[in-house]
Amino acid sequence: MYKYTRTDMKNRNERLMEIRRLIGSRNISSQDELIKILEKQGYEMTQATLSRDLKYLKVAKMPDDQAGYVYILPDKEQVVEAAELSGRGLSGLISLNFAQGMAILRTLPGHASSIAYTIDNLDAYEISGTIAGDDTILLIPRDGVSRSDLVNLLQLRMPGLLQGASH
Amino acid sequence: MYKYTRTDMKNRNERLMEIRRLIGSRNISSQDELIKILEKQGYEMTQATLSRDLKYLKVAKMPDDQAGYVYILPDKEQVVEAAELSGRGLSGLISLNFAQGMAILRTLPGHASSIAYTIDNLDAYEISGTIAGDDTILLIPRDGVSRSDLVNLLQLRMPGLLQGASH
DNA sequence: TCAGTTCGTGTATATTTATACATTTGGAAT
DNA sequence: ATTCCAAATGTATAAATATACACGAACTGA
Questions:
Q1: B21-80 per-position pLDDT tens digit
Q2: How far apart are CA B61 and CA B59, in angstroms?
Q3: Is B78-157 a domain of CATH 3.40.630.30?
Q4: So where are chain A's domains?
């Protein structure tokens, strides 16, 4: 017994638009998750149909630090960017990486120097010095200081800084 | 019996970069397909590891009219970047040198930050970050990335940049 | 040195997603 | 009107992908 027929196009188009809207407005990690949301809104469908809808809409599934995987719209201006931003710490720090024995901190544009200034003023033993660009800070640790030492220091002395930052 | 150990990081980094290169240069529709290509190039791995690699590299899978589904890099459109670049005439680069595992780019006075900004926006895997002064850019490569990797990257993603620059 | 930790990985499996096939029905063609 | 076709979908399953667990090597700190 089939419930939907060709005359339900209006229904389908509505659903497709709602799917787009949902994916653009929040992080969704699986088709099952999306189906449950749609069901609450009165859309009834199976996973197979949703799979086809997503293909039709050219929705991609992309790894994400917070959610594991999220669906993203094919548009140029990815809503993901904004979502990721809003999910990040208030301090402006985006990520903390280590390379060549140094720490590289990426920040929101324009935030680097103020964060670096604060770090400098910790007068921390572990830190030899910092250099800030516009959105990047190079942090040179004292010799022998480990990555975890630095992370610990920053978490201890600047609580909230690493909130939401990937590292 | 495990074939790879932690000291094979070079191998892993190589593999990650090769995966990026492959995905950027042709349409690949499944992990199995990618594994077969990698195997022909001498990389041995299981599907599980490839799945983790793709997650690490933030590679997304997107519906495609021709191939059904294709993997895409997390970067902004590469070709667009290149076009923007040539349009802006970012040819203020004077020289490219390597020291202490990092790259030092000398530019015409005042050109450093705009070039660094463009480099940052490549979101290149190979680059941990950049810091720009007035006429100097410090580029910190990701661990395991070689000089030639970097030169290749810049030539590929920013054609024209190295034109006339000594290195 | 030695215990504890982290990392990269394989194995096996769970989870997730895509699709072959069947079915219904409105509309098109004759 | 009758027949045919195409779209949309469900069902069942195949295919693809992610991950829990374990392991061994390398690093860390004491």
A1: 888 878 899 999 999 998 888 888 899 989 998 998 889 999 988 888 999 987 533 333
A2: 7
A3: no
A4: 6-85, 88-157
Question: CA at B52, C1' at D19: how many angstroms apart?
Answer: 10
Nearest CA in chain A to B80: A76
User: Best mutation site among B128, B135, B146 for testing chain A: the one with the most A CBs within 10 Å?
Assistant: B128
For B6-72, give the CATH class: mainly alpha
Fold of the domain spanning A6-85: Arc Repressor Mutant, subunit A (1.10.10)
Angle between helices A9-25 and A79-87 (to 10 degrees): 40
CATH classification code of A88-157: 3.30.1360.40
Q: Is the CB of A111 under 7 A from strand D?
A: no
Distance separating alpha carbons of residues A45 and A61, to the nearest angstrom: 20
Least confident of A85-94, A102-111, A119-128: A85-94
For chain A, helix (H) and strand (E) counts, in that order, are 6, 6
Which among B74, B138, B142 is the nearest to A138, CB-wise?
B138
**Residue B95, token pair as written in the block:** 């020289």
Residue A59 Cα, gap to closest chain B Cα (Å): 6
